[in-house]
Amino acid sequence: MTELQAGRASETLGAPSIETRSFRSRYRDILIALVAFAVLAALPFFFGSKALLDFVIRCSAFGLFATSLNLLVGYTGMISFGHGMFFGLGAYGFGLLMQRTAVPIPVAFVATLAITAVFAAIIGAICVRLKEIYFAFVTLAFQMLIHSTILTWASLTGGDQGLRGGIPRPVFFGIDLANHVHLYITSCALLVLGLLLMRQIAQSPFGYTLRVIRDNARRASFIGIDVWRAKLTIFVLAALFASTGGMVMALFVSGAYPEFAYWTISGEGIFINMLGGVTTFLGPMVGTVLLLILNDTVTRYTEYHGIVLGAVILFFAIGLRKGLMDYVLEWYTQRRDGPGERG
Amino acid sequence: MLDIRGLSKSFGGVKATDNVSLDFADGSLTAVIGPNGAGKSTFFNLITGALRPDSGEVLLDGVDLAGKSPPDIVRHGIGRAFQVASIFPSLTVQETMLAAVCADQRRSTVLHRRFPLAETRDRAEHAMELLGLANKRHRTAATLSHGDQKLLDIALALVLDPKVLLLDEPTAGMGTEERWRMIDKVRELWEAQKITVVFIEHDMDIVFKIAPRIVVLCYGRILATGTPDAIRRNEAVIEAYLGTEEHAEAVT
Q1: Residue A154 has what DSSP assignment?
Q2: CB B57 within 8 A of CB B6
Q3: Distance CA A304, CA A299 (A)
Q4: Which residues lie below 8 Å from residue A68, measured CB to CB, with a gap of 6+?
Q5: B88: which chain A residues are within 8 Å (Cβ-Cβ)?
Q6: Which of B71, B98, B121 sits opposite A226 (nearest CB)?
Q7: Do A208 and B115 touch (CB under 8 A)?
Q8: How far is CA A330 from the centre of its chain?
Q9: From the centroid of its chain, how far is CA B158?
Q10: In Å, what is the CA distance from A331 to each residue of A106, A323, A335, A336, B43?
Q11: Which residue of B has its CA nearest to A226?
């Protein structure tokens, strides 16, 4: 009993209350996001290199995609092998809207998100009830379905040629996406905003509901959680961020190609998550940067880049048995608590 | 009052629960005993919605819950703990409690605020103290001892403020001394919370000492119900369930 009271006393006196802690954590995240955006936005003024800006734009597209996949894989325990379909859907949806209608870019952006949400809700409603391996397979099947639809519906999508002729970019709010620096800043803004929103999802009560489901879905339903609804909600939310990544990609390459909706994109997403690790929020972002650097350097030296990438993933999967950020986190917590516990 | 009427469930040709009718008065403490395969866990699974009954009613204060989903039934006030502690391994004790209260307050889908919510705090705190887990609040559930994991499992049911608490073998896998500590805890909770508690237990010493009322299940049917004294003297129970002489000696 004394121990109990002591525990309570330290809780009320020493440690900050729940209210202050959640207040602090949110504003700390916003601060980090602002600083990160400021640093990224300042890059073009210090480095004139177009290649560097291109690299960051690609990181934005894949970072949004991979982090959203981690909401499913790492936070909810849903291993989707078809998440890339929403990346493709974003790219094609946005590209087609801009080519075929005269709507301003923000309208096309929102409309693409709406289309993605409808697709994700229908596909999710079918998939999220399934157990692990079946969920993985059926999401993969939907990915293939969307990919073949894009290939065969050539009159709309351009078939295996992709959406050609470029994506028109009317100026909006003084932003001209035909300008490389404008495109770069917009991509960074979307990345930082997207990460901030996903971070909020991860740290919200809903984010903890997801962890609860990942840990023990059966028990989750016995504390009154509607598991199916929660899984469907995160499936749709994650699809929206993947779709945003696809739109950034479409703007970057000024088109959309069937590869954007091919299963290899989903595979790359899983690869990135394994590389960066799924136990930290920024793991997939780190994985994205790693994979893109790896890809760019390896392809420069050898045409057998698949072998090298395969070796790297084997090293992470079998050697470390975790992603880079998982490894760093473990090392950090051990350094912090280790001596006390061991001594 | 929890009122079970004609509850039945078969798997293939086997009647796991066969026309069971029982009532549990508010604030009562009941032990369910029976040999392995008697249908004790199935009985709990039917009440809590883990299994759908073939027929029968599960009336809680007059509302029929038979065939409803587990989240629905939990929200109506029937909580349960599991034979093998069913917890959230990667969450800390405190997070587990806070997340459960969040779900109970129908705030588990809140997106615009940060976890934990201030309004979930008092109830989480209360449950941790009741179960003596407050000083282990920052421990990850997976690192707790077996006994503490069982306590956490019970805390997880209790934190939802159930009217009826079903405990599936709270002492499973424990040593003799730990068993008594656990069952004292259960009794203490029952007295403090004034809720209806039904528990499954194998240890006859514990059952006869603790439970004011005992239900004996055998092959899915009720063999007998009554006070410990009545059960001890019940011929059918001694023959069918306690069968061998040494068991008969153990209970008399």
Answers
A1: H
A2: yes
A3: 8
A4: A83, A194, A198, A237, A238, A239, A240, A241, A242, A245
A5: 211-212, 215-216, 219
A6: B71
A7: yes
A8: 23
A9: 10
A10: 43, 12, 6, 9, 47
A11: B71
**A233 → closest Cβ in B109, B114, B125:** B109
Residue B23's DSSP bridge partners are B3
Query: Where do we find the tokens 């072998």?
Result: A307
- Is A20 in the B-facing interface, judged by CB distances under 8 Å? no
Model pLDDT, residue B247: 53
Q: Tell me the ipTM for this assembly.
A: 0.89
Tally the domains of chain B.
1
Beta bridge partners of A24: none
Cβ <8 Å between A209 and B102: yes
| Interchain contact A209–B (C-beta under 8 A) | yes
Q: What is the pLDDT of residues A198-244, one digit of tens each?
A: 999 999 999 999 999 999 999 999 999 999 999 999 999 999 999 99
* Residues A308/A298, Cβ–Cβ less than 8 Å: yes
Strand order in the sheet with B63-64: B14-24, B2-11, B55-60, B63-64
Which range marks the domain in which residue B130 is found? 2-251
Contacts of B71 in chain A (CB under 8 A): 221-222, 224-226
Domain ranges of chain A: 25-262
Cα(A232)–Cα(B245) distance, integer angstroms: 57
Domain CATH for B172: 3.40.50.300
Contact B30, B215 (CB under 8 A): yes
Contact B115 A7 (CB under 8 A): no
Residue B238 CA to residue B233 CA, distance in Å, equals: 8
User: Which pLDDT band holds residue A4 (cuts at 50, 70, 90)?
Assistant: very low
Residue A91 forms contact with B (CB below 8 Å): no
**Looking at CA atoms only, how far is residue A328 from chain B in angstroms?**
18
Of the pLDDT bands very low, low, confident and very high (cuts 50, 70, 90), residue B103 is very high
Q: Among A5-9, B55-59, B80-84, whose mean pLDDT is lowest?
A: A5-9
Residues in CB range of B40: below 8 A, 6 or more apart: B32, B33, B34, B168, B200, B217
Taking the CA of residue A340 as centre, how many other CA atoms within 13 Å lie in the half-sphere pointing to its CB? Answer: 5
- Please give the radius of gyration of chain B, using alpha carbons only, rounded to the nearest integer: 19
Comparison of pLDDT for A4 and B188, the residue scoring more: B188
